[in-house]
Design brief:
Blueprint: E1 3-12, E2 15-25, E3 30-34, H1 41-48, E4 56-61, E5 64-65, H2 71-77, E6 78-81, H3 92-97, H4 105-114, H5 131-143, E7 149-153, H6 161-176, E8 180-185, H7 188-194, E9 197-202, E10 205-210, H8 212-220
Helix pairs in contact: 4-5
Amino acid sequence: MVLSLEHVDLERGGRAVLRDVTISAAAGSITALLGPSGAGKSSVLRCLVRLEEPHAGRVLVDGADVRSLDPCGLRRRVGLVAQAPVMLPGDVRANLTYAAEDLSEAQVRAALDQAELAQAFLARPAAELSGGERARVAIARALVRGPEALLFDEPTAALDPARAAAIAELIRRLAAVGLTIVVTAHDVALVQRLADRAVLLVDGAVVSAGAPAEVVAGWEAEPAWR
């Protein structure tokens, strides 16, 4: 699946959040959106799943304008993993099957496998999970419908270095089996280790895009951006 924004403008409360943003994420690749807080990284993800509507420009999924797609169908194809995923009441199984009671047992167990969690986790109370376990359950919840792309909003921000590295490796393995991945980050080490391509956003606009090492070097050369 190819995900694209073409000349997207987005306003919120009369303020420009995205300004003439053009970004493309290739199928089976990891694209990292780098930039300071408030740069518009999360807004790009929200536009891709129609949680926000641009005021100008187009958002495309495999060349189709997302406005022509059923929102629920779109969100089954493009999963979003939030920065601080909320665990719903009950056990892990309840979290995976919430609002999706037609899921088969095979689908539930396959999603758990993809998130590299033991099957015994299905009966674990969600409230008792560690931060790293919650992150994996959130990934399993996004995977349970068999998406073609996954969007991660600062997936390692609240984790210690060991758990962050494990989640980064999981994301890399998901891309290796064909999922298109878009990750927001302000951690340059994560971007360089994980991404195939990086895009630097500052004040809602694309400043540079290309090889992660080159984009990170430009970011680090401008202290005012951080």
